[in-house]
């Protein structure tokens, strides 16, 4: 059995980790709209800062499944739409893709709306709204500042206030022209009115290599082609990476019900790999579907294992403030990532907007999604910091009870949520 996951040091305190061509930020939820804890809105701030850099001649494209939040103090629609208005005023070209569930006429502070920005007399916003099903589930943005400065932002959270102060989320910003081109092709499909299975897929699987990558990285866009085409989909690639794990796997998944992936994780535990994961309590028992209940039960059933090793599910902190654990807070863990051998010589990060569900990974008429596959030690360690901050010290392999939290120099209580 591999050594303890995260044994390299105490819980991390940084919410922003950067390399030569990437930046990772993660939120620190307080569960209250009245507080603004330092670093709580790190993901929002990372995105807003990129919008703030836009000038005449620059361009940006953003896509989100949900767009809400009317407070100028919190990360969400209101401050983002103001930043977009200012960037348009400076002459930047901006394309915004919204899922049909977003009402573009909704007016936020300062009287701004997406529809209003699209009707500006000077340099209007280019607005594309999906036709409906499948879901346009992206949480992404791309920026071209000229001179080779091409960046792509891929988040786990929607562009809302709750994504910052009510949920654990991450946002990863990467500079690479090939990755930018792949996402630009995805946005071009949306601009042309093609969503879901109607999209072209020439950009799916595009490869790129970051400065410190130990191997090729790539991006997958959903929905996948039917299995009858012979094209390997994202689920199959995730499964292959799990099968190749040698020491440790850590995952944090908002929704998880894919049988092939839970079987792969159990098989990894059987061969001695340390497997630790987080699934929010709200998705285990929620009346509206309990999408992950079957996965939780599968991991807990000894009959599914050939050895005494187990996939250990641990809770997330209910808030960055205090020591309470997840007791059903709505969508507390909104992350969609997995780390394969994060402390090994060949670590892999799997991160994106897609849950590990049929619509997210394998259904040919499923959601519009994207998933990054990153062979990169620095990014793996940055995600590992987030995992540790969210879960505290982990239990011994096979234990399913809540771990004792590490002490932190933070207030023990805050005012009730608004």
Structural notes for this entry:
Residues 1-13 and 394-418 have low confidence and may be disordered. The chain has helices at 42-52, 77-89, 114-118, 162-165, 177-191, 234-243, 259-270, 282-285, 293-300, 358-361, 377-391, and strands spanning 16-18, 22-26, 59-64, 93-98, 126-129, 139-144, 150-155, 170-175, 207-208, 217-222, 248-253, 274-278, 312-313, 336-340, 348-352, 369-374. The protein has one domain (16-391): 2-Layer Sandwich (Endonuclease, Chain A). By secondary structure, the protein is an alpha+beta fold. Helix 1 packs parallel to helix 2 and helix 6 (234-243) runs parallel beside helix 7.
Summed up:
This protein has one domain (about 15-390): Endonuclease Chain A (Endonuclease, Chain A), CATH 3.30.870.10.
Relative helix content: 10-25%
- CATH fold field value: Endonuclease, Chain A
Indicate the CATH class.
Answer: Alpha Beta
Strand order of the largest sheet: 1-2-8-7-6-3-4-5
- Kindly report the name of the CATH homologous superfamily: Endonuclease Chain A
Structural class: alpha+beta
